[in-house]
Amino acid sequence: MAATTGACWRAPEWLPTLAPDRASRESAGRQKGRKRSIVQFGLLPPVRTGALAEPEWLTSFARIAERAGFESIVLVEHAVVVSGYRSRYPYARSGRMPLPDDCPIPDPLDALAYLAGVTERITLATGVLVAPNHHPVVLAKRIATVDRLSGGRVRMCLGVGWMEEEVRASGADPRTRGRRTDETIEAMRALWEASGADGASYGGEFFSFDHAHSFPKPVRGTVPIHVGGHSEAAARRAGRLGDGFQPLGIDGDLLGARMQAVRLAAEEAGRDPDAVELTVSGYLPSTTEEEVEAATRAGAVRMVLSTSVTRDLDALEAELTDFAVRFGVGTGDPSPRRPAGV
Hints:
By secondary structure, the chain is α/β, with parallel strands linked by helices. It is built from 10 helices and 11 strands. Strand 2 (72-75), helix 3 (108-116) and strand 3 (123-126) form a beta-alpha-beta unit. The two termini are 28 Å apart.
């Protein structure tokens, strides 16, 4: 799952100063005390509260986010949490994730399918879905189905998973996580892109099929696949196979090194490195204009922000609306409020 700490995001030292054209657009966006940001803002709901498994709460949160103009709602995955896990959670100094073992964490794709029916515009995303937990044939069908039913609003962020015990319980050898994730991305794209009479064929170390027909297809023919993680392997995977890179728990010069790895891997694969999007993370209540500008200089197109850890919808609505007004996200209009009875 994504890092949920409130640490400030820091720009790498290798970044250039704000480019003149961007600087002029930033200046033009300052009107009546409102800052019009270049980056878009996604939201990571407060998983720790357990409220994401409550349909009325999740509906209300998503509609509040959509009204405020946020770009996406991002859901995490843990198929299981194994008590007493020995794997180290890499995004906290303690090595333990900030969730109890019995925290309700809905399946992200099922939850996104639900959200597709109660929202109209907001992008429906994962961050991060644990790829080795899934077979790509089934996963491709599920993702394409949600994308069709939502009108093409799905974005996937996949990772190898940090909890080895979870991957093992899901039926995969944790030592093969990276290679399985590579094949999962390749196999899903093969299924989405093949529409002829011969169907799709793929042969890999872990997954193989011939003349396979998977319908419906995604609205745009494919679904954006971003790669989440913090390692050099994740960065290279993003450059080689991804539509984007969502580094978790890193900033400064380490982020710079990872982005250089993304670009190098993309060039080696004959891909355009500029086409690989960068998404960075943050903590919404403490996000500053300086952090947003630094993310923009880093080339980020999106910040996925964790909200305050509360299930109080009125407090969250105020928090999101205030942020939307400060940064010119959508209209920031807090009305109409939640529908009666929801």
